[in-house]
Amino acid sequence: MNTPKYEDLLKAGCHFGHMKRKWNPYMKPHIFTERKGIHIIDLNSTAKHLERAGLAMKNMAKSGKKVLFVATKKQARETVSKAALSVGMPFVTERWLGGMMTNFSTIRRSVKKMDNIDRMLADGSLTSVTKKERLTLTRERNKLERILGGIAKLNRIPSAMFIVDIHHEHIALAEAKKLGVKTFAIVDTNSNPELVDFPIPANDDNSRSIGVIANYMVDCIKEGLSERQSNKQEQEAAQNA
For labelling, which of 92, 120, 138, 236 has a CA lying 20 to 30 Å from the CA of 227? Predict the structure, then answer.
């Protein structure tokens, strides 16, 4: 679980913040300087917080807890969904529906509806409906899949969220805080890092910056899952001895 080096963070553009006039004063400890009206993030702070967040993320995975990845910005969607899928974690990359966590039972009903449509389309029970009705159902199913597909297998509130841009995902962050869900997030110079349990000061607008951080979080999860599996095998061997 090697934390990205200073050079890796620099190459990915993690140091580029927002324009000075858009800054949040709470980010002052994480800002190195200002160039041409743009704040430059201190990558030493980024590396320090990234390591802290990574260790916590590893321990989450080691204890079998679920982490929900949230990134609905266009430049983050593909990178974050791939990262989450690689470790079997749920994700939301299309649109955050208000109440997605605080009204989780309603979301689960929508997921169940999607599953029911899938079953009907597969077992031939829709043979009596018209082509127009079948097309309407298919479109509804595709819409549900686009928005809820990433959390279709999530049966309970996750233990943590990894968020890209808390300013953009303020509703998701608010729901996490209300439910006591631990938060990990890439926090840019226009946001308040004190709102997050494990903030990672970095550029949250660049796909390369998002990628290097999201992939490191995934590596931490993989290591945690690997240790969990090893511990499980050791316990089983001890019981059978």
Answer: 92
